[in-house]
Amino acid sequence: MTKLLRPTTIVSLLVVLLCLVMAFAPQLIAPGDPLAGTPRDRLLPPSAEHLFGTDSLGRDVFTRVVHGAWLSLAAATAAVLIGGVVGGAIGLLCGAARGRVGTAIDFVVMRFVDVLIAVPGILLALIVVATLGFGPWSIALGVGLGAAGSFARIMRAQVLRVRGEEYVEAAAVLGVRPLGVLGRHILPNAARPVLAMAALELGTAVLSVSAISFLGFGVAPPAPEWGALVSSGRDYIATSWWLTVLPGAVIVGVVLAVTRLARVIGEAR
Amino acid sequence: MNILEVENLQVRYRVGRRRVEAVRGIDLSVPRGGIVALVGESGSGKSSVSQALIRRLAANGEIVGGSVCFDGQDLLKLPMKRMRSIRGGAIGFVPQDPNSSLNPTLRIGEQLVEGLRLHLRLGREEAAERAVRILGDVGLSHPEARARQYPHELSGGMKQRVLIGMAWSCDPQLVIADEPTSALDVTVQRLVLDQMQQLASDRGTAVLMVTHDLGVAADRAEQVVVMRHGEVVDAGPTSAVLHAPTHEYTRDLVAAAPGLNSVRLSASAPSSAQAEPPHPLLEIRDLRKTFSLRRPGAAPEPFTAVDGVSLTVPAGRTVALVGESGSGKTTTARMAARIGTADSGSVLLDGRDVTTLTGDPLRQLRRDVQVVYQNPFGSLDPRLSVARIIAEPLRAFGIGGRREQQRTALELLDSVQLAQTLADRRPAELSGGQRQRVAIARALALSPRLLVLDEPVSALDVSVQQQVLQLLVDLKAERGVGYLFITHDFGVVRQIADEVVVMRQGRVVEQGPAERLLGTPDHEYTRALLEAVPGAAAR
C-alpha cells in the first residue's frame, strides 16, 4: 500500500489520467481546432495564450499535442496488444507442446523468435511499414511484432514453470482434458508476469511509435501526432526551440509515468 | 545447577503493520549435562525460542522481554561481539536441514577448521588434525578422506553427522539442536540420535532438542517442555510428562503421536458395507522402471528405481507401501495410478489391463482411480476457490449442471468435516490440514474405487495427522474405497493398514497382513525399520 502513496507514483498516476482525458476528450483541455492556423501568429514563443507557442503556420502547438494524444497512444496500445496476444499465444503453444508432441515444433519456432529478437525493433517496424504502407496502424503492427518475440519468450518460460507445478499434474490426474488444463490452470497462473511486462512495454511502444512517426512514416501531414510534431519542428530548431522541445518533453513525461506505474504494478505482485 | 535458565522470554514478529506474539513469556531450564526436549506443533513458537536463545531471530523478529541466563551471564544483555564468540564456541547449534546447512563450495574439513581456528585459536595444521579426529568421533568411516570431500559427495545422514561434529567441535557446554533429524529416514535418524546422545554423555554437554516428534523426545530426553501458542503448557521429567500425561493438550498429543500409539483406528460409525469377500481391485504385476542417471563427466548410468514389484489392493482395503527414501515406493505408486509409465510389467484394474491406456480411455480411468498428493500446498491451484477445486472433476466429466456441482462440492466439504463457509476461500487462506482435506474431497468427487495416497499426512502436525487418518478410515468404511497408501512412517502403518508391503531399493522385501508383519516380521530389514521407530522407550 505504501508504494502507491509515494510521490512519484501519484504524479505518474496523474500524468496517465491526464493522457486518458487527452486521448478521449481533447476538447476539455484544448477547445481550439488543431488544424486551423492564423498566419499572423506564426512562430510565437510560449505564452499564456499559446502555452506551447505556435508553429510555422500559426497553429497552437499545445492544441496539436493534446489532439495528437489519441493517435499516438492508440497506436502504442494497439502495438502492445498485438505483441502480447501474438507473442503470448506463440509462447503458450510452444511451452505446452514442448516435451510432448512438439519438442521439434518448439525448437523451430523459438529459433525463429530468437531471430525476431535479434533484429532491432525499429528496423523490423520499418520493414513492416515499408511493406504495408504508411500510417499509424501499420506502425502499430510493426512495433507489436517487434515486441512479440520477448512476449513469446516470457510466456513460454512461465508455462514451462507452471507445467511443473503439482496442481497441474493433479488436474490431469483428476481427468481434466489437456486443453482444459491449459486454459484453466496453466494460462491464468502463467499470465501474471506477461501482464506486468505488457504494462512496461507500453512506455517503450509510445517511444517507438513516436520515433517512427518522426521519421515520416506515420500519419499524413495535417493530422497531429507526437512524433510527427517533433519532426516538423526540426526545421526551426535554431530559432523556435519550443516546436521540438515541448512535444518531446510530453513524450518523455508520458513514457516515464507509464514505466513507473508498470514497475509499481510489477512489484505489488 | 543449571547451565541455561530462561525466564519470561517474549518474542514477537512484525508482519506488515501487525505484531505477532510468537513467544509469550516462557520459562525453561537446562541442567548441566542434561538433555531437554522442547516439543510442540508447527506454530507453537518452539523454533523462535531456539533462535532467540542465540539471538539469531529473523530480521522482523525481536526479543521484547525476559532473560536468558547462560553459565551465569545474561545473553540478551551481552554486546553482539561477545555473543558471536559464544555462538559456535560455548553454545553449539545443530540445524534442521543438513542439505542446506553446509557450504557447497568448501571441503568438509575446511568448514570444521574454520570454527576451530576462530574459537579455539588453533594453528592451521593442528586444526586440520583436530577436524579429522572429530569426523572419526561422529562415526564417519575414513575420516581423512571425508575431510577432503565436498558436501554433495555425502549422504544426508553423513552431513548431519558432520554438523553434529561441528556443533561439538569447540567443546561446548550446551548444544541446541533444532529438529536435528526431521529430514532423515528412520534408520538413519536412529544412528544420528545415538551419536548425539553418546557425545552428550561422553563430554557432559547439555542438549536442548527442539522437535515435533514426541517419540524422539520420549526416547532421548530426560526432561520435556511442551509448548503451544507461544506458551509452556506442560513441563517436567519425561516419564511424568509423556508416560502419564496430566495436562489435556499433552494427553492429546501423546494419543495422536503415531510412534507412541500403536492403536489401530476403527471407523467412527459402524460400517454399512456388507462383509463380502474382497476381490482384487488393483493388481500390479512385475512392474519395472529404469531411469538414466546423468552425472557430469560420466556416461549416463541406468538406475533401476523399481525392480519387479507385484502387489494387490483388494476392494475396500488399505494396503500400505512402506520404505525409506529412494526405495522406489513413490515411483511404484505413480505407475499404479498411471501417472508415470512402466518400462515393463502390467497394471490391472478389476482384471482389465490399463498399463498402456492413453488419451480418452486413460481419462475415463480417472473415474475409478484418484490420487492424493503429499504436499497439500502444491497440489491445489492457488487461483481457484475451494468449491471450484472440489467440483473440478465433476466439471471435467460433465456430471450435473453448475448448481448441482456446487451442491455436491458442499456435500463433499461436509463429508471431510470442513465448514461449508470455507467454500469461497482460496487455498492460501487454509491451513495444511484443511488443504489436505480439500484434496481428499476433490479425489472423492467422482466416487472412485481406488485412492492412491502418496504420503498424505507426512506434511501435517501429529494432531492434524490423526484427524486426517481417522477421516480416511471413516470414508473407507462409508464408501468402500480401496487405498494404496504410501508412507515412510510405521506409526501410520500401524494405525490404518490392512496389508503391508515393505520396499527397499526398488524391490519388495516382505509383504503380508498388517498384524502379522508388524508383530513378527520375517525379514531383518523390516525388523530394523520397526525398531528404529522413535518412541520405543515409551511403549
UniProtKB/TrEMBL annotation, chain A:
It comes from the Bacteria. Keywords: Cell membrane, Membrane, Transmembrane, Transmembrane helix, Transport. This is Peptide ABC transporter permease. Belongs to the binding-protein-dependent transport system permease family. It is a multi-pass membrane protein. Gene3D superfamilies: MetI-like (1.10.3720.10). One of its GO terms (biological process) is transmembrane transport. Residues 69-262 form the ABC transmembrane type-1 domain. GO terms for cellular component: plasma membrane. Pfam families: BPD_transp_1 (PF00528). It is found in: Cell membrane. The chain crosses the membrane at residues 69-96, 108-128, 134-154, 194-220, 240-262. CDD domains: TM_PBP2 (cd06261). It comes from Arenivirga flava. The keyword Transmembrane applies.
Automatic annotation (TrEMBL), chain B:
The keyword ATP-binding applies. GO terms for molecular function: ATP binding; ATP hydrolysis activity. Gene3D superfamilies: P-loop containing nucleotide triphosphate hydrolases. PROSITE patterns: ABC_TRANSPORTER_1, ABC_TRANSPORTER_2. It is found in: Cell membrane. GO terms for biological process: peptide transport. InterPro entries: AAA+_ATPase, ABC_Ni/Peptide_Import, ABC_transporter-like_ATP-bd, ABC_transporter-like_CS, Oligopep_ABC_C, P-loop_NTPase. Residues 4-254, 282-530 form the ABC transporter domain. SUPFAM superfamilies: P-loop containing nucleoside triphosphate hydrolases. One of its GO terms (cellular component) is plasma membrane. It comes from the Bacteria. It holds the Pfam family oligo_HPY. It is a peripheral membrane protein. Keywords: ATP-binding, Cell membrane, Membrane, Nucleotide-binding, Transport. Belongs to the ABC transporter superfamily. PANTHER family: DIPEPTIDE TRANSPORT ATP-BINDING PROTEIN DPPD, OLIGOPEPTIDE TRANSPORT ATP-BINDING PROTEIN APPD. This is ABC transporter ATP-binding protein. It comes from Arenivirga flava. The lineage of its organism: Bacteria, Bacillati, Actinomycetota, Actinomycetes, Micrococcales.
